[in-house]
Structure formats: C-alpha cells, structure tokens
Write a structure and sequence with these properties.
With 127 residues, the protein is an all-alpha fold. The chain folds into two domains: 83 residues, 434 Repressor (Amino-terminal Domain) (Orthogonal Bundle), CATH 1.10.260; 36 residues. It is 71% helix and 0% strand. It has eight helices and no strands.
Length: 127
C-alpha cells in the first residue's frame, strides 16, 4: 500500500476490523488493550473504530498488536494490505483454514463474474 493510500484512510478500515475481530475473539475491552499497550483509551478507540485515520507511529501499532496477542508487526502488515503471518494458535485452526479457503473461492467467483460482465457489457450498450 502506498503512503498516500495509508494517509487517506485506506487500510485503516482493515486495521479497525482486525482489532474488532480480535477483541471479540479474546473478549478484551478497550481498557484492557490500552492498559497492556500503555496507550490512551482515546487512541485505542480511534483505531478500533477508524475514527481518525492518520499516520501512526510504528510503536503504536506494535503495542496494540502485542496487547492483542499478535506478533508486533501484525497490524502494520494489515495496514499495508499484506496478509499477516498468523499467530501460532491460528496457523493450524481448521475453522480458520476453511474460512480462508471460502474467502479465496469467493474472490475467484467475483473475478469470474466481473469478467463475464465485461464481456457482456458491449452487448447491453445502446447505440
């Protein structure tokens, strides 16, 4: 992801979603994360809900990642649009593997539908 895309808020939605999902999985609160990461509650709230997308210090994302039980670079990887290395307990989870497989199939189907739509578009156009 480019720095412009990062600054404009693209990628921060993914970071917020990752944080929300992990909080639900671990049943952690914003206060738990803020305390473990030694950050303000406002910072955690902004990240969780993508309230103020802006460049953050790498240490901030690393602290939140670690507070959530992830490797330090996890959220930075999500922000860049890359696929983060799963945490050890996630790597062998058959349910997560099945979800990843379904996601891949959905993306492939979406690509096929878009290709078909592009092929049919000239036929539907009125002169």
């Amino acid at each position: 992801m480019t720095e412009a895309a990062e600054a404009s808020g693209e990628g921060w939605d993914s970071v917020a979603e990752a944080i929300r999902n992990r909080m639900a999985e671990t049943r952690m609160t914003q206060l738990d994360i803020a305390s473990r990461a030694r950050l303000s509650l406002t910072t955690v709230r902004e990240l969780q809900h993508n309230l103020n997308p802006r460049r953050r210090r790498p240490q901030t994302l690393a602290a939140v990642s670690e507070a959530l039980g992830w490797p330090p670079d996890y959220l930075a990887t999500v922000l860049r649009g890359d696929r983060p290395t799963p945490h050890a307990d996630e790597a062998g989870d058959p349910i997560l593997q099945a979800i990843d497989h379904l996601g891949l199939e959905i993306r492939e189907l979406r690509d096929r539908v878009e290709q078909i739509e592009r092929q049919l578009a000239p036929e539907d156009a009125t002169p």
